[in-house]
From TrEMBL:
This is nicotinamidase. Pathway: Cofactor biosynthesis; nicotinate biosynthesis; nicotinate from nicotinamide: step 1/1. Keywords: Hydrolase, Metal-binding, Pyridine nucleotide biosynthesis. Pfam families: Isochorismatase. The keyword Lipid biosynthesis does not apply. InterPro entries: Isochorismatase-like_dom, Isochorismatase-like_sf, Isochorismatase_Nicotinamidase. Belongs to the isochorismatase family. The keyword Ribonucleoprotein does not apply. Residues 12-213 form the Isochorismatase-like domain. It comes from the Bacteria. SUPFAM superfamilies: Isochorismatase-like hydrolases (SSF52499). Its EC number is 3.5.1.19. It comes from Halorhodospira neutriphila.
């Protein structure tokens, strides 16, 4: 884990994305090997290497627009057009107040300074911790995370969590677009579809994210 030691811990944050039971093997939207990151991530969070830890939590209301069950005749993983962009329709997951939506109990969340809940608007999906997906007016509303980090003097982000090809990727890319120095801890992420790994890595690096292997 030496590669994950930040150069300036007081200006760096570990950003833990959506580590929740519904994204674990056996959950309704399982990542491939998501449970494998729990032990090393717990060790990193408790190590003191990152004095600043922030988490995101997928927190859908029932009947969310991103659920296939909200679209008559549609099945999970189909894609539809929503507000002029492609929207993948998901199985119901991370529904507010359900056990699968809780932060995973295997991680030491006492070390996190803040938890940002996202996808709380029933009409807008939200992969990124920084901005929601497209809204009906064509905007991507900010979540407030960038302001929170800046007000605390945090300039470098080390991103990990689930899922590598969606919420982790969008969070890392939006963080870089917002002006942060972003490092993605590849070994502490897992994908929904590992076949996309090469394209995900190229996309991240093309948007200014440093991919850190190992972890």
């Amino acid at each position: 884990m030496a590669a994950t030691l930040p150069h300036d811990p007081q200006r760096s944050a570990l950003l833990v994305v959506d580590v929740q039971p519904d994204f674990m093997p056996g959950g309704p939207l399982a990542t491939q090997g998501g449970d494998e990151i729990l032990a090393p991530l717990a060790e990193l969070m408790a190590s003191g290497r990152f004095p600043h830890i922030v988490a995101t939590q997928d927190w859908h209301p029932p009947g969310h627009v991103s659920f296939a069950s909200s679209h008559e005749g549609r099945e999970p993983f189909e894609a539809v057009e929503l507000y002029g962009a492609e929207q993948v329709l998901w199985p119901e997951h991370c529904v507010q107040g359900t056990p699968g939506a809780e932060l995973h109990p295997a991680l030491p969340w006492r070390h996190a300074e803040a938890v940002l809940r996202k996808a709380t608007d029933p009409q807008i999906d939200s992969y990124s911790g920084f901005r929601e997906n497209l809204a009906p007016d064509g905007s991507r509303p900010p979540t407030g995370l960038a302001g929170y980090l800046r007000e605390r003097g945090l300039e470098r982000l080390y991103v990990c969590g689930l899922a590598r090809d969606y919420c982790v990727r969008w969070t890392a890319e939006d963080g870089a677009a917002a002006g942060f120095e972003v490092h993605l801890l590849w070994g502490l992420t897992r994908p929904v579809d590992p076949a996309d790994d090469d394209a995900v890595r190229r996309g991240l690096e093309g948007r200014g994210v440093t991919v850190v292997d190992g972890g």
